[in-house]
Write a structure and sequence with these properties.
The chain is mainly alpha-helical. The chain has helices at residues 2-12, 25-38, 57-69, 73-98, 101-112, 115-120, 127-147, 150-166, 170-185, 192-195, 198-208, 210-218, 222-235, 250-260, 265-277, 287-305, 318-331, 334-357, 361-371, 373-380, 390-417, 420-449, 452-461, 480-484, 514-521, and strands at 44-46, 49-51, 467-471, 489-491, 511-512, 527-531, 547-552, 555-559. The protein is built from 25 helices and eight strands. The strands form two sheets. The chain has a six-stranded mixed β-sheet. Strands 1-2 form a two-stranded antiparallel ribbon. Strand 7 (547-552) and strand 8 (555-559) form a beta hairpin. The termini are far apart.
Length: 561
C-alpha cells in the first residue's frame, strides 16, 4: 500500500538516536527487560516489584524484540512504530473498502499526519498498539458485515479482545457497542449472531478476559485493582492506590485531542454533521460510517465528561477521524473545505512564527503543561522537569511555521480554483512536512530529561557493595536500572503505579522509609541517591555528610561519601 510505504520512513527513522524519555518510556522498556530475564513469568515487575497497572501484550512484544535485536532504544521503539504502521495500513484498507483507493490513501496519511498519533507511534507506551488493534478490529468487523462474511466479523471481535491485552478491557467492550448501536439505529441489530458470532465472542473473551485468571493467580487482588481501583474508583477520583497522574480539565482535554488530530477534525466534523442532517443511520449502506462517527464522537465526548482524563485518551478516535476526513474531502464542498483548512493552517503558522520569534517561555509552558503527562506530574509534585533550551527546539518550530504557511497558501489556491485534488494533497503534504520536526523535537526532549547520564555515572563509579537509592516513584526514572545495571532501593515511592505491588510481602525489602535510609547513610557502605526533588524538599536535606556528585536530566545524584 502506498500509505504504508509513505509512512514507514517517517515512523522508523532515527528511533534509536536518543535515550529513553524519563518519566515515560523507561518504565515500559525496563518492565519488558525484566520479563525477558524472567522468561515469561507473571506477574510483570518493575525494579523487582509486581506491576499490574497494564496488561502484558506490549511487554511480551518488547521482550521478543529484545531477544531478536538485543535490548536497545531502537528495538523498543520499533514495536510502537510497527503498531502505528499497522494502524495506518488498517485505516487505509478500510477506507479503500468503504470508498476507493484514493479515499484509503488519504485516510491512511491523515492518520499518520495526526501529530498526537505520530508522536505515540515513536514512543514506548501501549497506546500505539492499542490504537492499532482497535483499528484492525473495526476494519475486519465492518468489512465483514458489509460483505456478509461472519468469519471476518468474528476475527474483528477477537482482535478487540486482543486490544484488551494491550492496554484496557474497554477495548473489548466499547467497539462492539458502537457497532451494535449503529446497527440498531438502522433497524438491523437482529439477529445478534450476525454481528456477535459466538466463535468470535468466545475468542474475544478468552483473549481479553481469560488471562485475568492467570494474573489473579499470580497476584491475588489483581482483578479488584484493575476493575474497581483503576476504573471505577479512578473515575470517581477515590482510588485506594493512587499514582501521581494529574488529569486535564474537560476544556484542556478537548483542545489537546482536537489539535492532535488537526486539521482532519474539520472535514470529519463536516461529515458527522451531514450524516445527522440526512438521518443517514436509516440507510443500511451508511452503517460503517455511522459506526465511525459514533466511535469518534463517543471517545472524545465521553472522555471529556468523566472526571479523569489524560492527554492521550483521545488517540483511539483518530483512525475514525481520519476516515471521516477522507470522506469529507471527497464529498463536501471544496471551496468551503479548502478555505477553512487555509484559515486553520494559516493561524497555526502565525502562532508558530510568533513562538519562533519569542523567548519560547509561553510556548514551552503551554505545550508541555497541556500535552505531557510527566510534566503535569512533576509540576504538581513541586519539582518541574526542565524543558530543553529554547535554542534547541526553536528551529523545529520555525520549520513547522514554514510548512504550515506553504500548506495554507496552496489551500487558498485550491479554494479559489475549486481544485479538490490540490486541496486534499496540500493538506496531506503540509502535515507530513511537520512530522520530521515533531520527531526531532521529541528526540531533544527525551535526551534532555533522560536518566541515562546519572545512571552511567553510577555504572562507572559504584563499587560492588554500594547501594543505589531512588527517591520518589521509580517510574519517574524507569530506565535507571537499565542504564546503571543496578537495582535501586525506593524511598518515598509508594504513591505510584507500584502502589499495589508495594503491599506484597516480597516487596518489603525493596522499599525503604526515611529512617532506614538514614541508618544506611551513616553505615559502612557507600550509598548513591538519585532524586528529582529540589534539595529543600528532598530527603537529602535531613541527611548529613552527603555530597552532590552530578546533575542531569532534571535530577541530582548524591553520595554519602
Amino acid at each position: 500500500m502506498l500509505a504504508v510505504v509513505a509512512a514507514a520512513p517517517l515512523l522508523f527513522g532515527g528511533l534509536g538516536v536518543s535515550a529513553f524519555d524519563d518519566p515515560g518510556e523507561g518504565m515500559h522498556a525496563e518492565i519488558a527487560r525484566e520479563l525477558l530475564i524472567a522468561r515469561g513469568a507473571l506477574p510483570l515487575t518493575l525494579s523487582g516489584v509486581a506491576y499490574i497497572d497494564k496488561p502484558p501484550l506490549l511487554y511480551a512484544l518488547l521482550a521478543s524484540a529484545y531477544s531478536i535485536a538485543g535490548p536497545s532504544e531502537g528495538a523498543a521503539r520499533a514495536v510502537s512504530a510497527t503498531a502505528a504502521l499497522l494502524a495506518v495500513a488498517a485505516t487505509a484498507w478500510l477506507g479503500a473498502r468503504l470508498g476507493d483507493a484514493r479515499l484509503g490513501f488519504v485516510a491512511g496519511l491523515a492518520l499518520l499526519g495526526s501529530i498526537g498519533f505520530f508522536a505515540y507511534g515513536r514512543y514506548v507506551r501501549p497506546d500505539a498498539l492499542f490504537v492499532a488493534l482497535l483499528t484492525l478490529g473495526f476494519a475486519l468487523a465492518l468489512s465483514g458485515l458489509l460483505d456478509e462474511r461472519p468469519w471476518r466479523v468474528g476475527a474483528g471481535l477477537a482482535v478487540f479482545g486482543l486490544s484488551a491485552l494491550a492496554k484496557d478491557p474497554l477495548g473489548l467492550l466499547a467497539p462492539p457497542l458502537a457497532i451494535g448501536l449503529a446497527l440498531a439505529l438502522a433497524g438491523r441489530a437482529r439477529p445478534l449472531a450476525r454481528w456477535l458470532p459466538w466463535p468470535g465472542v468466545a475468542l474475544a473473551l478468552v483473549l481479553g478476559v481469560g488471562w485475568w485468571a492467570l494474573a489473579e493467580a499470580a497476584t491475588p487482588g489483581f482483578a479488584w485493582y484493575t476493575v474497581v481501583d483503576n476504573h471505577v474508583l479512578n473515575v470517581a477520583r477515590a482510588r485506594y492506590f493512587p499514582d501521581e497522574d494529574v488529569p486535564l480539565s474537560a476544556l484542556e482535554f478537548l483542545v489537546v485531542a482536537l489539535l492532535g488530530a488537526a486539521p482532519w477534525v474539520v472535514p470529519a466534523g463536516g461529515v458527522v454533521v451531514d450524516l445527522v442532517r440526512r438521518r443517514a443511520w436509516r440507510d443500511p449502506g451508511e452503517m460503517p460510517w455511522i459506526t465511525l462517527a459514533l466511535w469518534a464522537t463517543g471517545v472524545v465526548g465521553l472522555t471529556a465528561l468523566v472526571p479523569f482524563r489524560l492527554p492521550h485518551y483521545g488517540l483511539p478516535a483518530y483512525p475514525a477521524i481520519a476516515l471521516l476526513a477522507a470522506r469529507g474531502w471527497r464529498d463536501l464542498g471544496v471551496r468551503w473545505l479548502a478555505g477553512v483548512h487555509a484559515v486553520l493552517l494559516g493561524g497555526l503558522a502565525i502562532g508558530c512564527t510568533l513562538a519562533w520569534a519569542s523567548d519560547g517561555a509561553a510556548f514551552l509552558s503551554g505545550v508541555f503543561d497541556a500535552t505531557d503527562v510527566a510534566t503535569r506530574k512533576s509540576v504538581a509534585g513541586g519539582a518541574p522537569l526542565p524543558a530543553p533550551p529554547w535554542e534547541m527546539l526553536q528551529p523545529f518550530v520555525g520549520a513547522a511555521a514554514l510548512a504550515l504557511a506553504a500548506g495554507a497558501l496552496a489551500l487558498v489556491i485550491a479554494a479559489v480554483g475549486r481544485h479538490r485534488v490540490l486541496g486534499v494533497y496540500a493538506a496531506v503534504v503540509a502535515v507530513a512536512l511537520l512530522l520530521p520536526s515533531a520527531a526531532g523535537a521529541l528526540g531533544v526532549v527525551s535526551a534532555h530529561r533522560a536518566v541515562k547520564g546519572l545512571a552511567e555515572e553510577i555504572r562507572e563509579r559504584a563499587g560492588a557493595d554500594d547501594v543505589v537509592v531512588h527517591e520518589g516513584p521509580i517510574e519517574n526514572a524507569g530506565a535507571l536500572e537499565w542504564y546503571a545495571g543496578r537495582r535501586p532501593m525506593i524511598v518515598a515511592g509508594r504513591r505510584s503505579v507500584l502502589g499495589f505491588g508495594a503491599t506484597r510481602p516480597e516487596a518489603a525489602a525493596r522499599f525503604w522509609d526515611e529512617a532506614e535510609l538514614g541508618r544506611q547513610w551513616v553505615g559502612p557502605r557507600r550509598v548513591w541517591l538519585v532524586t528529582a526533588r529540589a534539595p529543600s524538599h528532598s530527603v537529602i536535606a535531613r541527611l548529613t555528610g552527603g555530597r552532590l556528585v552530578a546533575v542531569g536530566g532534571g535530577r541530582r545524584l548524591y553520595a554519602n561519601r
